[in-house]
C-alpha cells in the first residue's frame, strides 16, 4: 500500500483569483469596504490586491466573465474565500466598515476555534472574514479531540473592540 502524501506544515494557500462581472464594482467591495490595497493593474480587465504589501492575496479579472452572472444555486464552484485577520480588533474594524457601507451579512458564528462573519461579494462569491483564537483556547473533548462549534457571534461586542 502506497502511503498518502503529506504536505509540509508550512504550506499555505497563497491567493485566490476570482472571475468578476464588473471590475470597478468588485474593487468597490474588496478595496473600498474590506480595505485591500491595489498592487498591480492590468488595464481595465484585471487587478491584484493585497494586505501589507504582499504581491497579491486576491486577483480579480473579467477575462472570461465581463457582464456575467453568478452560478445558479445548486451548482458546484467556490463556496467561500476565507480572509484571516490578525486579531479581534481588526475583525471588528472590518465589521464596522461593512455596517457603515450598509453591506448585508449572511451570518456570524463563534466556532470555538475562531470567530467568523459571512457575506457575499458583488458577484455572489461567499466571503468569510475571521480571526483564529490561540490554539491553547480551542475547545477539546475529554479525549483531547478538537470540538468545533457553531454558536451565535456577538456582533455588538465585536464592534466594541474595533481598531
Write up what this structure looks like.
Strand 7 (114-120) and strand 8 (126-132) form a beta hairpin. By secondary structure, this protein is of the alpha+beta class. The mean pLDDT is 95. The chain has 2 domains: 15-66, 2,3-Dihydroxybiphenyl 1,2-Dioxygenase, domain 1, CATH 3.10.180; 80-163, Roll (2,3-Dihydroxybiphenyl 1,2-Dioxygenase, domain 1). Helix content is 17%, strand content 28%. It has a 5-stranded mixed β-sheet with strand order 5-8-7-6-9, with helices on one face.
CATH third-level topology of the largest domain: 2,3-Dihydroxybiphenyl 1,2-Dioxygenase, domain 1
Largest sheet: 5 strands, mixed
**DSSP helix count?**
3
Secondary-structure-based class equals alpha+beta
Q: What's the CATH class label of the largest domain? A: Alpha Beta
Strand order of the largest sheet: 5-8-7-6-9
Estimate the helix proportion, in percent. Answer: 10-25%
The tally of structural domains comes to 2
Radius of gyration: 18 Å
What's the CATH H-level homologous superfamily of the largest domain? Answer: 2,3-Dihydroxybiphenyl 1,2-Dioxygenase, domain 1
Averaged pLDDT: 95
Q: What form results from the Cα inertia axes? A: globular
Tell me the β content.
25-35%
CATH architecture classification name of the largest domain: Roll
Distance between the termini: 52 Å
Q: How many runs of DSSP E, i.e. beta strands?
A: 9
SSE topology string: EHEEEEHEEEEH
Amino acid at each position: 500500500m502506497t502511503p498518502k502524501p503529506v504536505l509540509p506544515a508550512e504550506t499555505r494557500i497563497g491567493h485566490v483569483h476570482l472571475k468578476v462581472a464588473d471590475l470597478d464594482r468588485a474593487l468597490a467591495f474588496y478595496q473600498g469596504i474590506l480595505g485591500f490595497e491595489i498592487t498591480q493593474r492590468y488595464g481595465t480587465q484585471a487587478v491584484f490586491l493585497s494586505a501589507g504589501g504582499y504581491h497579491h492575496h486576491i486577483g480579480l479579472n473579467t477575462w472570461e466573465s465581463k457582464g456575467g452572472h453568478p452560478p445558479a444555486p445548486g451548482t458546484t464552484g467556490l463556496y467561500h474565500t476565507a480572509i484571516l485577520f490578525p486579531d479581534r480588533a481588526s475583525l471588528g474594524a472590518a465589521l464596522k466598515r461593512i455596517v457603515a457601507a450598509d453591506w448585508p451579512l449572511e451570518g456570524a458564528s463563534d466556532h470555538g476555534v475562531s470567530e467568523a462573519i459571512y457575506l457575499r461579494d458583488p458577484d455572489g462569491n461567499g466571503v468569510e472574514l475571521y480571526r483564529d483564537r490561540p490554539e491553547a483556547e480551542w475547545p477539546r473533548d475529554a479525549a483531547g479531540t478538537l470540538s468545533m462549534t457553531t454558536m451565535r457571534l456577538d456582533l455588538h461586542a465585536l464592534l466594541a473592540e474595533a481598531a
